[in-house]
Design goal:
Helix content is about 55%, strand content about 10%. By secondary structure, it is an alpha/beta fold. Strands 1-2-3-4-5 form a five-stranded parallel beta sheet.
Protein backbone atom coordinates (compact mmCIF):
# COMPACT_ATOMS: atom_id res chain seq x y z
CA UNK A 1 0.00 0.00 0.00
CA UNK A 2 2.82 2.41 0.87
CA UNK A 3 4.74 1.92 -2.36
CA UNK A 4 1.62 2.24 -4.49
CA UNK A 5 0.71 5.45 -2.66
CA UNK A 6 4.23 6.73 -3.25
CA UNK A 7 3.95 6.05 -6.98
CA UNK A 8 0.56 7.77 -7.13
CA UNK A 9 1.99 10.78 -5.28
CA UNK A 10 4.87 11.03 -7.75
CA UNK A 11 2.45 10.87 -10.69
CA UNK A 12 0.23 13.54 -9.15
CA UNK A 13 3.16 15.86 -8.39
CA UNK A 14 4.49 15.55 -11.95
CA UNK A 15 1.04 16.13 -13.45
CA UNK A 16 0.52 19.23 -11.30
CA UNK A 17 3.93 20.63 -12.23
CA UNK A 18 4.99 20.56 -8.58
CA UNK A 19 7.57 17.78 -8.77
CA UNK A 20 11.27 18.57 -8.36
CA UNK A 21 13.61 18.00 -11.28
CA UNK A 22 14.50 14.57 -9.87
CA UNK A 23 12.03 12.38 -8.00
CA UNK A 24 11.83 8.73 -6.96
CA UNK A 25 12.35 6.29 -4.10
CA UNK A 26 15.02 4.53 -2.10
CA UNK A 27 14.14 0.84 -1.77
CA UNK A 28 15.60 -1.88 0.45
CA UNK A 29 19.16 -3.04 -0.16
CA UNK A 30 20.31 -6.25 -1.85
CA UNK A 31 21.69 -7.91 1.28
CA UNK A 32 20.09 -11.34 1.76
CA UNK A 33 17.52 -10.41 4.47
CA UNK A 34 15.97 -7.56 2.48
CA UNK A 35 16.74 -8.43 -1.15
CA UNK A 36 13.32 -9.90 -1.96
CA UNK A 37 11.49 -6.97 -0.42
CA UNK A 38 13.66 -4.45 -2.26
CA UNK A 39 13.03 -6.07 -5.64
CA UNK A 40 9.29 -6.32 -4.94
CA UNK A 41 9.11 -2.65 -3.95
CA UNK A 42 10.93 -1.57 -7.10
CA UNK A 43 8.70 -3.74 -9.29
CA UNK A 44 5.51 -2.39 -7.70
CA UNK A 45 6.72 1.21 -7.95
CA UNK A 46 7.71 1.07 -11.62
CA UNK A 47 4.62 -0.93 -12.59
CA UNK A 48 2.29 1.55 -10.88
CA UNK A 49 4.04 4.55 -12.46
CA UNK A 50 3.60 3.00 -15.90
CA UNK A 51 -0.06 2.23 -15.19
CA UNK A 52 -0.47 5.95 -14.46
CA UNK A 53 1.39 7.08 -17.59
CA UNK A 54 4.99 7.46 -18.84
CA UNK A 55 7.87 7.38 -16.37
CA UNK A 56 8.89 10.82 -15.07
CA UNK A 57 11.85 12.27 -16.96
CA UNK A 58 13.68 12.90 -13.70
CA UNK A 59 13.08 9.45 -12.21
CA UNK A 60 15.70 8.57 -9.58
CA UNK A 61 16.01 5.16 -7.93
CA UNK A 62 18.41 4.76 -5.02
CA UNK A 63 20.12 1.44 -4.25
CA UNK A 64 21.27 1.66 -0.60
CA UNK A 65 23.91 -0.05 1.53
CA UNK A 66 25.92 -1.43 -1.39
CA UNK A 67 28.69 -3.73 -0.15
CA UNK A 68 29.93 -5.32 -3.39
CA UNK A 69 30.23 -4.61 -7.09
CA UNK A 70 28.11 -7.72 -7.63
CA UNK A 71 25.10 -5.91 -6.12
CA UNK A 72 25.42 -3.21 -8.76
CA UNK A 73 25.67 -5.89 -11.43
CA UNK A 74 22.51 -7.46 -10.01
CA UNK A 75 20.76 -4.08 -10.18
CA UNK A 76 21.78 -3.74 -13.83
CA UNK A 77 20.31 -7.18 -14.55
CA UNK A 78 17.12 -6.23 -12.74
CA UNK A 79 16.85 -2.96 -14.70
CA UNK A 80 17.25 -4.88 -17.96
CA UNK A 81 14.43 -7.25 -16.99
CA UNK A 82 12.14 -4.36 -15.99
CA UNK A 83 12.75 -2.70 -19.36
CA UNK A 84 12.10 -5.94 -21.21
CA UNK A 85 8.86 -6.71 -19.36
CA UNK A 86 7.45 -3.20 -19.77
CA UNK A 87 8.73 -2.52 -23.27
CA UNK A 88 10.94 0.36 -22.18
CA UNK A 89 13.90 1.57 -24.18
CA UNK A 90 17.25 0.08 -23.20
CA UNK A 91 19.00 2.15 -20.54
CA UNK A 92 15.84 3.94 -19.37
CA UNK A 93 16.17 2.62 -15.82
CA UNK A 94 19.11 4.31 -14.10
CA UNK A 95 19.94 4.35 -10.41
CA UNK A 96 21.99 5.98 -7.68
CA UNK A 97 24.34 4.02 -5.43
CA UNK A 98 24.47 4.83 -1.74
CA UNK A 99 27.98 4.23 -0.38
CA UNK A 100 27.53 3.30 3.27
CA UNK A 101 30.12 0.57 3.86
CA UNK A 102 33.94 0.76 3.99
CA UNK A 103 34.43 -2.34 1.84
CA UNK A 104 33.16 -0.36 -1.16
CA UNK A 105 35.81 2.30 -0.55
CA UNK A 106 38.71 -0.12 0.00
CA UNK A 107 38.53 -3.87 -0.63
CA UNK A 108 40.62 -6.58 0.98
CA UNK A 109 42.72 -6.86 -2.19
CA UNK A 110 43.62 -3.16 -2.07
CA UNK A 111 41.33 -2.05 -4.89
CA UNK A 112 38.68 0.67 -4.79
CA UNK A 113 35.38 -1.04 -5.71
CA UNK A 114 33.58 2.33 -5.74
CA UNK A 115 35.39 3.12 -9.00
CA UNK A 116 34.75 -0.34 -10.44
CA UNK A 117 31.02 -0.23 -9.78
CA UNK A 118 30.59 2.78 -12.08
CA UNK A 119 31.88 0.73 -15.03
CA UNK A 120 29.92 -2.31 -13.85
CA UNK A 121 26.80 -0.15 -13.92
CA UNK A 122 27.04 -0.04 -17.74
CA UNK A 123 26.02 3.61 -17.93
CA UNK A 124 23.10 3.21 -15.55
CA UNK A 125 24.74 4.66 -12.41
CA UNK A 126 23.68 8.29 -12.22
CA UNK A 127 25.12 9.28 -8.85
CA UNK A 128 27.08 8.15 -5.78
CA UNK A 129 25.75 9.14 -2.37
CA UNK A 130 27.67 9.12 0.90
CA UNK A 131 25.81 7.51 3.81
CA UNK A 132 26.91 9.40 6.91
CA UNK A 133 25.78 7.23 9.77
CA UNK A 134 26.06 3.65 8.51
CA UNK A 135 29.54 4.35 7.19
CA UNK A 136 30.78 6.06 10.36
CA UNK A 137 29.27 3.40 12.60
CA UNK A 138 30.90 0.60 10.61
CA UNK A 139 34.29 2.14 11.40
CA UNK A 140 33.58 2.34 15.11
CA UNK A 141 33.03 6.10 15.31
CA UNK A 142 31.04 6.91 18.46
CA UNK A 143 27.50 8.13 17.82
CA UNK A 144 28.19 11.60 19.20
CA UNK A 145 30.98 12.12 16.67
CA UNK A 146 29.31 10.76 13.54
CA UNK A 147 29.13 13.68 11.12
CA UNK A 148 29.45 14.74 7.50
CA UNK A 149 32.67 16.54 8.48
CA UNK A 150 34.36 13.72 10.41
CA UNK A 151 37.76 12.74 8.93
CA UNK A 152 36.46 9.27 7.98
CA UNK A 153 33.68 10.96 6.00
CA UNK A 154 36.12 13.23 4.20
CA UNK A 155 38.33 10.27 3.24
CA UNK A 156 35.41 8.31 1.82
CA UNK A 157 34.13 11.29 -0.14
CA UNK A 158 37.62 12.08 -1.45
CA UNK A 159 37.81 8.56 -2.90
CA UNK A 160 34.28 8.83 -4.31
CA UNK A 161 35.08 12.22 -5.86
CA UNK A 162 38.10 10.80 -7.64
CA UNK A 163 36.04 7.80 -8.79
CA UNK A 164 33.36 9.95 -10.47
CA UNK A 165 35.79 12.44 -12.05
CA UNK A 166 35.28 12.62 -15.80
CA UNK A 167 32.52 9.98 -15.81
CA UNK A 168 29.45 12.22 -15.74
CA UNK A 169 28.32 10.47 -12.56
CA UNK A 170 27.22 12.92 -9.88
CA UNK A 171 28.31 12.94 -6.23
CA UNK A 172 26.20 13.68 -3.18
CA UNK A 173 27.19 14.30 0.42
CA UNK A 174 25.24 12.69 3.22
CA UNK A 175 22.91 14.11 5.85
CA UNK A 176 22.87 15.47 9.36
CA UNK A 177 20.40 14.10 11.90
CA UNK A 178 20.33 17.36 13.85
CA UNK A 179 16.85 18.55 12.86
CA UNK A 180 15.64 22.19 13.03
CA UNK A 181 12.53 21.47 15.09
CA UNK A 182 11.26 22.14 18.60
CA UNK A 183 12.01 25.35 20.47
CA UNK A 184 13.46 28.42 18.69
CA UNK A 185 16.93 27.91 20.16
CA UNK A 186 17.14 24.36 18.81
CA UNK A 187 15.88 25.46 15.42
CA UNK A 188 18.43 28.28 15.18
CA UNK A 189 21.33 26.02 16.23
CA UNK A 190 20.31 23.29 13.77
CA UNK A 191 19.94 25.84 10.96
CA UNK A 192 23.41 27.21 11.70
CA UNK A 193 24.91 23.71 11.62
CA UNK A 194 23.13 22.70 8.43
CA UNK A 195 24.02 25.92 6.59
CA UNK A 196 27.68 25.42 7.51
CA UNK A 197 27.68 21.78 6.39
CA UNK A 198 26.02 22.60 3.07
CA UNK A 199 28.51 25.44 2.47
CA UNK A 200 31.35 23.07 3.34
CA UNK A 201 30.51 20.44 0.75
CA UNK A 202 29.81 23.07 -1.91
CA UNK A 203 33.30 24.47 -1.34
CA UNK A 204 34.67 20.92 -1.68
CA UNK A 205 33.07 20.56 -5.12
CA UNK A 206 30.17 18.35 -3.97
CA UNK A 207 26.98 19.98 -5.21
CA UNK A 208 24.33 17.72 -3.72
CA UNK A 209 23.41 16.58 -0.25
CA UNK A 210 20.69 14.78 1.68
CA UNK A 211 18.12 16.66 3.77
CA UNK A 212 16.10 14.69 6.32
CA UNK A 213 13.49 17.27 7.28
CA UNK A 214 11.49 19.90 5.40
CA UNK A 215 12.84 22.68 7.65
CA UNK A 216 16.33 21.97 6.30
CA UNK A 217 15.23 23.24 2.89
CA UNK A 218 15.47 26.76 4.32
CA UNK A 219 19.21 26.51 4.90
CA UNK A 220 19.74 24.36 1.79
CA UNK A 221 18.52 27.24 -0.39
CA UNK A 222 20.18 29.90 1.75
CA UNK A 223 23.62 28.27 1.74
CA UNK A 224 23.45 27.28 -1.94
CA UNK A 225 22.40 30.72 -3.16
CA UNK A 226 24.99 32.39 -0.92
CA UNK A 227 27.72 30.13 -2.33
CA UNK A 228 27.00 31.18 -5.91
CA UNK A 229 26.23 34.82 -5.12
CA UNK A 230 29.37 35.45 -3.04
CA UNK A 231 31.78 34.39 -5.76
CA UNK A 232 29.82 35.63 -8.76
CA UNK A 233 31.48 39.01 -9.21
CA UNK A 234 35.03 37.63 -9.09
CA UNK A 235 34.24 34.60 -11.27
CA UNK A 236 32.39 36.70 -13.85
CA UNK A 237 35.23 39.20 -14.08
CA UNK A 238 37.89 36.52 -14.43
CA UNK A 239 35.89 34.71 -17.11
CA UNK A 240 35.35 37.98 -19.01
CA UNK A 241 39.08 38.71 -18.88
CA UNK A 242 39.89 35.22 -20.15
CA UNK A 243 37.32 35.14 -22.96
CA UNK A 244 38.06 38.64 -24.22
CA UNK A 245 41.81 38.40 -23.54
CA UNK A 246 41.88 41.35 -21.17
CA UNK A 247 45.09 41.76 -19.18
CA UNK A 248 44.62 41.26 -15.43
CA UNK A 249 46.50 40.27 -12.30
CA UNK A 250 45.38 36.63 -12.70
CA UNK A 251 46.59 34.51 -15.61
CA UNK A 252 43.87 31.88 -15.97
CA UNK A 253 44.41 28.77 -18.09
CA UNK A 254 41.75 26.93 -20.13
CA UNK A 255 41.08 24.43 -17.32
CA UNK A 256 40.49 27.26 -14.87
CA UNK A 257 38.23 29.02 -17.36
CA UNK A 258 36.14 25.84 -17.54
CA UNK A 259 35.92 25.77 -13.74
CA UNK A 260 34.86 29.43 -13.63
CA UNK A 261 32.20 28.80 -16.29
CA UNK A 262 30.93 25.66 -14.53
CA UNK A 263 30.60 27.60 -11.30
CA UNK A 264 28.51 30.32 -12.96
CA UNK A 265 26.56 27.77 -15.00
CA UNK A 266 25.59 25.89 -11.84
CA UNK A 267 24.50 29.18 -10.31
CA UNK A 268 22.23 29.82 -13.27
CA UNK A 269 20.85 26.27 -13.17
CA UNK A 270 19.81 26.53 -9.52
CA UNK A 271 18.33 30.00 -9.90
CA UNK A 272 20.92 31.92 -7.91
CA UNK A 273 22.25 33.75 -11.00
CA UNK A 274 20.31 35.35 -13.86
CA UNK A 275 21.12 35.38 -17.56
CA UNK A 276 21.36 39.17 -17.47
CA UNK A 277 24.06 38.96 -14.80
CA UNK A 278 26.08 36.57 -16.93
CA UNK A 279 25.89 38.97 -19.87
CA UNK A 280 26.80 41.95 -17.71
CA UNK A 281 29.68 40.42 -15.76
CA UNK A 282 31.26 37.96 -18.21
CA UNK A 283 30.07 39.66 -21.39
CA UNK A 284 29.07 36.36 -22.96
CA UNK A 285 25.74 34.68 -23.73
CA UNK A 286 24.33 31.66 -21.90
CA UNK A 287 25.11 29.33 -24.84
CA UNK A 288 28.70 30.59 -24.80
CA UNK A 289 28.86 30.06 -21.05
CA UNK A 290 27.59 26.51 -21.41
CA UNK A 291 30.05 25.75 -24.21
CA UNK A 292 32.98 26.77 -22.01
CA UNK A 293 31.56 25.04 -18.92
CA UNK A 294 31.13 21.76 -20.80
CA UNK A 295 34.54 22.12 -22.47
CA UNK A 296 33.02 22.28 -25.93
CA UNK A 297 35.20 25.21 -26.93
CA UNK A 298 37.81 27.56 -25.56
CA UNK A 299 38.26 31.25 -26.20
Amino acid sequence: AAVLAAADSVTAAVAAGKAPACIGIRFKCFEAPTRGRGIRTLDLFITRLLENGPLPEGLRLTLPKVTTVAQVEAMVHLAEQVERVHGLEEGRIRFEVQVETPQVILAANGTHPVAQLIASGKGRVSSLHYGTYDYSASLGVAAGYQSMEHPVADFAKDVMQVAVAGTGVELSDGSTNIIPAGDPENIAAAWELHARLVSRHLARGIYQGWDMHENQLVTRYLATFAFFREGLQAAGTRLRNYVHQINSAIMDEPATACALARYIHRGVACGAVTADEVTELAQITLPELEAIALNRSHA
